[in-house]
Write a structure and sequence with these properties.
about 290 residues; globular
């Protein structure tokens, strides 16, 4: 799968950026399928697999938890739980038992999906192609905009549910129609009827901007990281191109190691950002203005 020339390098990059896609109309694997009826099997499979891994791992640690002799995995998970719990208490000021477990689930799930980016780019696609005969395979679910949009849309509907719970339908409607421009008293109070369309437009833009920015931020950072790993793999492939190629391959190895360490920080920060913004949006939805 290693590229040997400029044309092959371009094909190599495009191959790694292609999903294993099922055309739901024909029920056949089709790399070129797009639109509503195209299902990315690889992103869906790995996201569900990592979600199941998260549930199994945390339950296993909870069942085997020991106060006297905690293991390294238990210590790591306890640190994670305490961190998420502290962030939730600082950001969400209502009494709700759902928010902290939700924040922990989002952080751990997104982190595991991002962590897949540290697997060598050719390893699993090579196994899938040679062993299973699959034409393409992308193993990082968060590099698929459909996955990140799915997460952000879930957060969007949760914010609506929280707004309805804490403000009620009438309170939510009043806030949408009378915020931010509102004349409380005086001769211009009738102006509120004129300001309602402007308030509604601003509200719609604000509500839609949150899931869009939440999903595109995660997707953009992980997609860029994956692309850099693919480009560095092209340098590694030059090792068979003579002395100059060996030098390029050595440089590629050094850059690959450096980028892996830096990217470990990136994937952690992106998981934290997604979790924190989710809690912030839920907090804003539950507060009265």
């Amino acid at each position: 799968m290693a590229p040997e020339g400029a044309h092959d390098s371009g094909s190599y990059v495009l191959h790694h950026l292609s999903n294993l896609t099922l055309n739901l109309q024909t029920m056949r694997i089709d790399e070129h399928a797009q639109g509503f009826w195209a299902l990315h099997l690889d992103s869906t499979f790995f996201s569900l697999l990592l979600g199941a891994l998260f549930l199994w791992l945390f339950r296993r640690v909870a069942v085997r938890a020991s106060i006297d002799r905690p293991g390294k995995l238990q210590n790591a998970i306890e640190i994670m739980v305490e961190f998420v719990d502290k962030q939730t208490r600082d950001l969400f000021h209502q009494d709700n038992k759902l928010v902290a477990p939700l924040a922990l689930t989002i952080f751990a799930w997104v982190f595991l999906m991002n962590l897949m980016d540290l697997i060598p780019v050719d390893l699993l696609p090579f196994v899938a192609e040679r062993g299973l005969g699959l034409p393409a395979l992308r193993v990082v679910p968060s590099t698929d905009v459909n996955i990140t949009f799915g997460l952000s849309i879930g957060v969007f509907f949760l914010t609506l549910a929280f707004a309805m719970k804490y403000k009620g339908p009438v309170g939510y409607l009043k806030e949408s129609l009378l915020h931010p421009f509102f004349v409380r008293r005086g001769p211009l109070i009738a102006l509120n009827l004129v300001l309602v369309p402007f308030n509604l437009i601003l509200r719609v833009v604000e509500e839609l901007a949150r899931p869009v920015s939440l999903s595109l931020r995660l997707f953009g950072n992980l997609f860029a990281g994956e692309l850099i790993f693919v480009l560095l793999a092209i340098l590694l492939a030059q090792i068979l191109s003579g002395p100059a190629g060996a030098v390029l391959a050595a440089v590629g190895i050094l850059f690959n190691i450096a980028w892996a360490f830096f990217h470990l920080l990136v994937i952690t920060i992106q998981a934290v950002v997604f979790m924190v913004l989710t809690v912030v949006y839920l907090s804003l939805a539950s507060e009265h203005h």
